[in-house]
Write a structure and sequence with these properties.
The protein has about 180 residues and is mainly alpha-helical. It contains ten helices and no strands. The protein has a single domain, classed as Hypothetical protein af1432, CATH 1.10.3210.10. The structure holds fe (iii) ion (FE) (2 copies).
Amino acid sequence: MEKIQDSKRFEHTLGVEYTAAALAMRYDCDVRDAQIAGLLHDCAKCLTDEKRLSICKKNKIPITAVEKKNPFLLHAKVGAHLAYKEYGIRNPDILNAIRSHTTGRQNMSTLEKIVFVADYIEPGRIHAPNLAEIRKLAFVDLDKALVRILKDTLDYLRASGGDVDPMTEETWNCYNK
Ligand code: FE
Ligand code: FE
């Protein structure tokens, strides 16, 4: 990852790796799997949009309307593909955790939730609102932290006029009960 990511992204990657490991310890998840998923989650983040789109086309990975308009969103799907193809990952739970790390999805596994939450709270993140509270919550109740992150993400996107991936809303509807 150090070779293919810029230094800022690599620092984030290491942050997600060890935050995911700490959460795995807390929630009885495989620590090694959490580290691997954390290390690989943004493996397609430093590609160009053209490259991401061409990898999708070549491998028949479906592209949604929001993704077509915002191809950086594809880094999760393409990341899972590369994790399988280039990095030899065969554990479907790790691949799912990479695939769902930006939008979440319905019925996420503990590992998927861990990577999603770790991506948001890792120490290098400084701009998100309510970070101190969410960081604490993550180690108390993983589902509540997940819902809180989804809510803040949706609020932020709506306020800033950004495109909301319908998948994020779907995840929110699934967990906001
Ligand atoms: Fe990402
Ligand atoms: Fe990330």
